[in-house]
């Protein structure tokens, strides 16, 4: 059996060809209402299918937020399964925003859910939380290698509450976030052109205050409705800015349900990011 191409290489190619942008699929109840849809499974399906049909053949990454599908139970998960399959078939990389974190066999089960090719929710990458200890992520890290997938680890999130944990001082004087970033760098050592273990670092931070040279992708939520702009990226990410995957959700989704409006918004953000980071 041929070994799968690593996620980091696939992501680098997707960003270089389609533009450095991740668009979130976040079917908030308020967004469904804004689109003239009911807050039910039918509305969820219509919303999701519209976004996938409009963007999956042109953006580098689509990031469904699992919670907004889970709230509808098994019928919502069925919508998510189809969205993942359709998006990947159209050429987008799918990053499942699930933020899972646990230990032992439970973490292994989460890894099998999102990172095993036989799973109906198999995705190109998944978000995880390391704050049960970075070593607790080992089942997901190992499954990602086997599947050619990526793992995005929460590091420096933009919510104010995150600082009490992430900025806390660990043994040796480093912040806890820096400890996690250093673990990620070790996982990515020697990978070319980009490692497959990424960090989640909020674009709204102003100054990350950490060494982000992890040789891996840096998922940057907060562009658009949360207040950050592409022009803010160099200030937050410094020399690592070329590895940033900016994530936009409402800034694009508010232009629906018109497919052309969604495409135009995504293209505009991608162009602004290219200009801000000096991408060709």
From TrEMBL:
GO molecular function: orotidine-5'-phosphate decarboxylase activity
Coiled coil: none
Superkingdom to which the source organism belongs: Bacteria
Keyword line: Decarboxylase, Lyase, Pyrimidine biosynthesis
Designated gene of the protein: pyrF
InterPro entries: Aldolase_TIM, OMPdecase_AS, OMPdecase_type-2, OMPdeCOase_dom, RibuloseP-bd_barrel
Pfam family, one: OMPdecase
Listed pathway(s): Pyrimidine metabolism; UMP biosynthesis via de novo pathway; UMP from orotate: step 2/2
EC numbers, comma separated: 4.1.1.23
NCBIfam families: pyrF_sub2 (TIGR02127)
PANTHER family assigned: OROTIDINE 5'-PHOSPHATE DECARBOXYLASE (PTHR43375:SF1)
Family that this chain belongs to: Belongs to the OMP decarboxylase family. Type 2 subfamily.
Occurrences of domain Orotidine 5'-phosphate decarboxylase (ranges): 20-265
Enzyme class, UniProt record, top EC level: lyase
Active site residues per record: 99
Reaction equation(s) it catalyzes: orotidine 5'-phosphate + H(+) = UMP + CO2
Name this protein carries in UniProt: Orotidine 5'-phosphate decarboxylase
Classification via CDD domains: OMP_decarboxylase_like
């Amino acid at each position: 059996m041929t070994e799968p191409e690593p996620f980091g290489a696939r992501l680098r190619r997707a960003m270089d060809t389609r533009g450095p942008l991740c668009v979130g699929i976040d079917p908030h109840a308020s967004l469904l209402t804004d689109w003239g849809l009911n807050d039910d499974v039918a509305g969820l399906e219509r919303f999701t299918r519209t976004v996938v049909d409009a963007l999956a053949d042109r953006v580098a990454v689509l990031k469904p937020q699992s919670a907004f599908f889970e709230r509808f139970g098994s019928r919502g998960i069925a919508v998510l399964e189809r969205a993942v399959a359709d998006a990947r078939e159209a050429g987008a990389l799918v990053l499942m925003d699930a933020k899972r974190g646990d230990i032992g066999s439970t973490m292994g089960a989460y890894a099998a859910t999102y990172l095993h090719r036989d799973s109906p929710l198999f995705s190109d990458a998944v978000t995880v939380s390391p704050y049960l200890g970075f070593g607790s992520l080992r089942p997901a890290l190992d499954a990602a290698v086997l599947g050619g997938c990526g793992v995005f680890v929460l590091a420096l999130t933009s919510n104010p509450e995150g600082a009490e944990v992430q900025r806390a001082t660990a043994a040796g004087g480093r912040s806890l976030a820096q400890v996690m970033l250093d673990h990620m760098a070790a996982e990515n050592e020697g990978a070319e052109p980009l490692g497959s273990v990424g960090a989640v670092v909020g674009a709204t931070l102003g100054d990350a205050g950490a060494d982000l040279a992890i040789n891996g992708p840096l998922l940057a939520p907060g562009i658009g409705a949360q207040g950050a702009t592409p022009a803010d990226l160099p200030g937050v990410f410094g020399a690592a800015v070329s590895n940033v995957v900016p994530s936009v959700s409402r800034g694009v989704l508010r232009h629906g349900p018109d497919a052309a409006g969604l495409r135009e918004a995504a293209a505009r953000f991608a162009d602004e990011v290219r200009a801000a980071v000096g991408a060709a």
